[in-house]
Structures are given as C-alpha cells and as structure tokens.
Design brief:
Layout (H helix, E strand, L loop, with lengths): L1 H25 L7 E2 L1 H11 L1 H22 L4 E10 L4 E3 L2 E4 L2 E14 L1 H68 L5 H35 L7 E2 L13 H7 L1 H18 L8 E12 L8 E10 L7 H67 L5 H35 L6
Amino acid sequence: MPNAFSTAFRRAAATCGVALSVATAAFAQGPPPKVEFDEAIRRALDQNPTVAEATTNIMRAEALLQQARAFTLPLVSVGVTNATLDNARGFEGSVTQPRNQFSFAASASVPILSLARWATIDQSRDQIEVATRSTTDVRQSIAVAAASAYLSVIAARRQVEVDERALETARAHLDYAQKRFEGGAGSRLNQLRAAQEAASDQSRLEATRLALRTAQEALGVVLAASGPVDAGSEPVFDTTAPGSEAEWIAARTDLQFQTAVQRAAERVVRDSWKDNVPTAAVSFDPLYLTPSGIFQPSRTWRLSISMTHALFEGGQRRANARLREVNRDQASLAFTGLQIQARSEVRLAQEAVQALDRALAGARQAAEHAMEVVKITTAAFEVGATTNLEVIDAQRSARDAETRSAQAEDAVRRAKLDLLVALGRFPK
C-alpha cells in the first residue's frame, strides 16, 4: 500500500507541474490589449466587415434608383456612316445614289407618358430605405455580438479568479498536510488527499484559463482585431423602467426594417394599376447627308409621337398584381408576428432581470457561507477535531458556490443586456 500511495502522490505532483508548464507556454506571449465596453462596441461597428458588407446594399439600392431614373430621362444618340458603292446609281444622266456618300444622323427621344416606369423611381427610393434599415439592424446585431463576447470575457475572467482562489486554498492545505506528515503528526493518506485536490484544482484552472483565452479570441474576431482582446471593467447597464410601448417599438431596429419592407410592398401594390396605362414617347431625328441624291435631300428631320398599349399579355399583368398583393400580405403578417415576439421579449427580459437579481443575491450569500465553512472546518482539522476529508469537501463546496455566484453574475449582466436590446436601447 505505501508504494501505491507514493505512486499516486508522484502522479499528482507531475500533473501540477505539467499544468503549470502549459499555462506558462500559453501566456508567454503576454496579456492581450484591453478595451472598455463602449470602445469595444464602437470598434465593432467601425471595423467589423459584416457592417461594411451591409452598407454595400445601400449603395446597390442607390444605383438601382439611378437606373430607374435613367429610363425616364431623354435619350440622345448620334451616328456617322460612310457608304461606298461599286458605281454611282442613276438614270438619264442624273445621279440618284452617289458612289461615295457620308451621313450624320442624330436621334433624341423622351417618354411623355410612362406611369409604370415613373412609379419605379419611388419604389426604388423605398428600397433605399429598406437597405438603410437593414444596415441599421445588422449594426445592432454586431453590437450585440460584441457585447456578448465582452461579457463572456468578464465571466471567464471571473471564473479564473474563483479557480485561482480554490487552488491557493488547496495548496495551503497541501502545505499544512505536508508539514504535519514530515513532523510525524500527520498521515501519508492525508498528504495524498491534499495533493490530489491541489492537482485537480490546477487542472481545472488551466481549463478556465483556456476558456478565457478563447473568449478573448472571440472578442478580437468581432472587433476585427489582429489578435485576442481583453475586456476592461464591467459595464453598467441602465435598466430603468421603459417608456410606453409605442416608444420602444419605434426604437427597435428589426421593427423599423420590417416597417420599411411593409411600406415598400404597399406602394408596389398601389402602383399596379399603372401597368394598364398606355405609354407614349416623342422623338426627333435630324439627318445630314453629303453628297445628296435626287431623292435624298442633304438636310432632313423627322418628329415622331408614338403611343403603345398592350391589349393582351396572357394574364401576365394580373399575375404580377396578385404576386405583389401576396408580398404585401406576407410583409404585413411578418410585421405583426414580429410585434408579438417583441412584446414577449420585453416581458420575459424584465422578469428575467428581477428573478436573476434575486438568484444572484442567494448565490453570493451561499458563497459567503461556504467560505465560512471552510475556515471553521480548517480550524477544526488543525486541532484534530475533524478529518481532512471534511476540509476537502468544504473546499469543493466553496469552490462550487463561488462558481455558481460567478455564473449568476454573468446571467444578470446578460439579462440586462437582453432587456436593453428588447427595448431598442442598445446600442445607444
């Protein structure tokens, strides 16, 4: 049995040494740069490529508006032609078609009645509004992602602190057990139990340190940084009572976007009748020809006014109108569903903040009691009133209680963030 105890002790010590080497290698590159909460949100909105990609949708909508306008503006074109024949054409000594002839032609046309095309201009403006609202919604999503990553770093760092204290306590107990064993007052079993607990806490600490580095890397990705980024101080969220429902509904970016989509769809439906209106255009075509022929004057021009109307299109216009109505109805239903979801999110977020605040108070109180138990149990063990099994059990309970307290703190922070997002108050 002593050999088995010695083997277990050596393995525990080796585990501590390996874990310490891993920690030293992982953090040899130095701590990552630290940013505060507001700065992290600003950098995410300024540098994240997803925001820039969403912004291109606005430029695309503006280009489509210019394209729609182009169809309603005058169109001017010119052409130059030089024709050479094998021989001149004519009869009775007169030339009707010279052998070599140069012509310069121009054409200018403008629509004077095109309601369907004119309607696309306002519809394109609506699409710019939709793209703008969509970009705003994307910006909020990126801000929320950055805030969530920031809170993850804080939570991971808090857990590292908990596990560091647990390891410190376990090492103190191991040192005490080692001295008692060397002095002949303790047992080898107590020494091995203390060493096992210290090794377990060391291993747990390395896992939480890795989780912290992972969270820092995730924050760096959201901020489009070149490496991991550390979080600064804990943010303070203003979760005062919200205003009226109309105010926070108007402030939500997803509802703003869906409102723009609904308005655009309604305009398209209102403009459907314009597809049945005839189109009319006027064109002016001057021509210069040299040398002229008998039947070809040197300078001519033509003014044309044309009107067209499709009498039968196989039901295409009716199908288009029906499709537009379906799109409008879908947008309206989506907006209604989003409003219902938004009200639910606000109610749930408010209740979550209150419930998690109470849970946090209980978790902190439990952690304080657990630490008192550790102190009392340790003191009793030192005077021989209890065994080290009770000390180790108290240490584990204290560590678990502190972990639950740290998790409750993170849950409260996230619940407050969720409430601000539900109310449309984040980012500011």
